[in-house]
Amino acid sequence: MKFPFRLEKAPPPSTLRRALLPVRALVATFLAGAIPVLAAGANPLTAYYLMAAGSLGDMIAITEVFVRAAPLMMTGLAIAIAFRAKFWNIGAEGQFYAGAILGTLVAVNFPELPFWVHIPFMIAAGMIGGALCALPGILKIKLKVGDVVTTLMLNFIMVILTSYLVQNILKDPFTRWPQSPPITDSATYPVLIPFTRFHLGIVIALFVALVVGYGLIEYTALGYEIKAVGSNEIASRLAGINPTALTIKTAIISGSFAGLAGIGEVAGIRHHLIATLSPIPIGYGLTGVVIGVMSGLNPLWVVLVAFLFSIIINGSQTMSRLTGVPIFLGEIFQGLALGFSLLFLFLDQYRIRRVR
Which residue, of 25, 33, 59, 196, is most buried by count of CB atoms within 10 Å of its CB? Predict the structure, then answer.
């Protein structure tokens, strides 16, 4: 029996259509998310209002949105830049932990350093750790190993390694808790708003995403090469661009951004390296994949989508407490957001034709 429909390549979508991908995915996510809310016996409008109120209801809540959004910005940016060059980095979670490990080794030592030296030293170590964990980029080039598989597997390796370190080599010798010794005062991100957790790392994350990330993609030769290789590798090679070297550069940059997120959590929030530095079951790295895709791989949209996810995650607790809706609804929203983002990306590139 002949199938009555076929897929065919669609004309390139307009700039406006591409720019509105996050908006389309967001609207579809909230419409579909109303179904499990109704199934739980709650009014979707009330639930969404309580979600927003729980995240934006007062100054403390608003600063907590920034606290949650900072690592999401960095992992989302890491994914967006990697995917732009068609390096399918699913390993931001592992790079997050690698940055936290190496940065912590610097942060718990060298107490004699002044903060204006110690903090940049720690940040550099964290970014190097994340970059080293992006070595699957080399495996892809040299051995043709699938980058999805290798980056994904490194997530588990780094999480297990972190757990081993904090229970053995890096275990706090005084408390004997499974965590590293506290980082020194000179390596701690200062709090910028009294009586909150709004710290220097949030400003750094905003600067990196809005200035470094966006500037890299839009206003540098490297950014042009990333976009060119992502659009057409063969044409880029004919134009004199080396896709092999570019993939390695992109992997290093992507991993360093995820590593910056990891050390930011240690220096700004936890002040120790712990095995559960990234939330369970959906960590900052995997959530960053959703954010990167939903943002259309645009660094500016990454920032906005990261704040949206922060509002959803933080507000889910208030919504659950006051409506009885399960708190894991926030995780359902993340899954819906990824699904609709991929669906709209697919529909932007292909269209369904009926075969007569």
Answer: 25
Least Cα distance to 78 among 271, 262, 245, 222 occurs for 262
- For 268, phi and psi rounded to 5 degrees? -100, -30
- Whole-number Å distance between alpha carbons of 262 and 284: 9
CA separation for the pair 54, 179 (Å, rounded): 31
Taking the C-alpha atoms of residue 77 and residue 71, their distance in angstroms, rounded to an integer, is 10
Nearest to 323 by CA among 17, 25, 47, 13: 47
User: In degrees to the nearest 10, what's the CA dihedral of 142, 144, 149, 151?
Assistant: 20
User: Residue holding tokens 């709209």?
Assistant: 344
Query: pTM value?
Result: 0.92
- Count of domains in the chain? 1
What is the extent of the structural domain holding 242?
A: 5-354
One-letter amino acid of 227: K
Q: Please tell me the distance from the alpha carbon of residue 205 to that of residue 203, in angstroms, as a whole number.
A: 5
**CATH number of 334's domain:** 1.10.3470
What is the predicted pLDDT for the residue at 133? 80
CB within 8 A of 146, min separation 6: which ones? 140
User: Under a CB-based contact definition with an 8 Å cutoff, are residues 96 and 285 in contact?
Assistant: yes
Closest alpha carbon to 201 in 262, 264, 273, 117: 264
Query: What DSSP string describes 40-85?
Result: TT--HHHHHHHHHHHHHSSHHHHHHHHHHHHHHHHHHHHHHHHHHT
Indicate the range of 1-5, 94-98, 230-234, 321-325 predicted with least confidence. Answer: 1-5
* Cα–Cα distance measured from residue 257 to residue 264, given in angstroms and rounded to the nearest whole number: 11
At a CB cut-off of 8 Å and minimum separation 6, what does 144 contact? none
